[in-house]
Design a protein that fits this description.
By secondary structure, this protein is mostly helical. It has one domain. 78% of the residues lie in helices and 0% in strands. It is built from six helices and no strands. α3 (49-71) packs antiparallel against α4 and α4 packs antiparallel against α6 (108-127). The radius of gyration is 16 Å and the shape is elongated.
């Protein structure tokens, strides 16, 4: 990953300092996997397959975003990926809510952060054509 490239980009308003991302993502990953754990452990007659697939799919897009942005330096591709991520995340929250309201609520900070990341990614795309 080339963080020097990132430092040369024109940054959108409200771009946090780089040091914010590691602690923020640490907390978000803890909440995400706690949410998944509660979802999978909650007793219900509802089939959990679709919710699990949605969770894993959004997680895949989450993992694809960093290499697309930092390694491949493809801001447009990373924007497309993050849009897919948020769509699958919304589906995950809906399915998790049907099984456990707590598991769905635990994903809300992640959803808000991803929405903020969409704003940032869009800003990078506009400011760095």
């Amino acid at each position: 990953m080339d963080l020097n490239w990132y430092e040369t980009l024109n940054k959108p308003l409200f771009t946090p300092p780089s040091w914010v991302f590691a602690p923020a993502w640490t907390v978000l990953y803890i909440l995400m996997f706690l949410s998944l754990y509660i979802y999978l452990r909650t007793y219900t007659k509802i089939n959990k397959t679709n919710g699990t697939i949605l969770f894993l799919t959004q997680l895949l897009f989450n993992f694809l975003w960093s290499p697309s942005f930092f390694y491949w330096q493809n801001i447009k591709l990373s924007f497309f990926i993050i849009i897919l991520l948020v769509l699958f995340l919304i589906g995950t929250i809906v399915y998790f809510y049907k099984v456990s309201k707590i598991s769905a609520i635990l994903l809300i900070p992640y959803f808000l952060w991803v929405c903020f990341a969409i704003y940032l990614n869009f800003g990078f795309m506009v400011l760095n054509p």
